[in-house]
Design goal:
There is one protein chain. The chain is α+β, with helices and mostly antiparallel strands. It has one domain. It contains two helices and seven strands. It has a seven-stranded antiparallel beta sheet. α1 packs parallel to α2. The termini are far apart.
């Protein structure tokens, strides 16, 4: 029996991109006039880490951001690091690289050299969506993020 080829759901992916754009816009507004900086993450008044958002490139219709998390739990935790491109004219945002893996293909053949899943791009954008939602729910902007903050 022949295995079926993976075909991405373009409508779901587009909705994911739009949701990520909306969440990123809310986060950057939450940071105030500084535009980009640190977000301290606190769950039940316990400091769990910092998410840093940096502007890498600003063009007329696009911004490229670097999102990195540093955990209070130490280096044993796999802290996410993603480069995200925001397309302001289309109001969408997509992950363009993660942990040094550049050029994320929409569909990967499997097996491949880096052992990416066939739907790697969708999985990364779904993770970004969940991560940004967590930042919106538990994030607090403060100039000294390494102290315990109350929500």
């Amino acid at each position: 029996m022949r295995k079926r080829k993976y075909v991405p759901d373009i409508i779901a992916l587009g909705a994911q991109y739009e949701g990520n754009y909306t969440r990123l816009m809310k986060l950057t507004r939450m940071m105030g006039d500084d535009d980009f900086g640190d977000i301290a993450l606190n769950v039940a008044e316990r400091f769990v880490g910092v998410v840093t958002i940096r502007l890498l490139e600003a063009c007329k219709y696009t911004d490229t951001l670097l999102l990195e998390q540093t955990s209070a739990a130490g280096k044993w935790l796999n802290n996410p690091s993603m480069t995200v491109r925001m397309y302001h004219d289309a109001t969408v945002a997509e992950v363009i690289s993660s942990r040094g893996h550049t050029r994320i293909e929409g569909v990967n053949s499997y097996p491949n050299q880096f052992m990416h899943h066939p739907d790697e791009k969708i999985q990364l954008n779904m993770f970004l969506s969940e991560w940004l939602g967590f930042c919106l729910a538990y994030g607090c902007c403060d100039k000294s993020p390494f102290k315990t903050l109350k929500m």
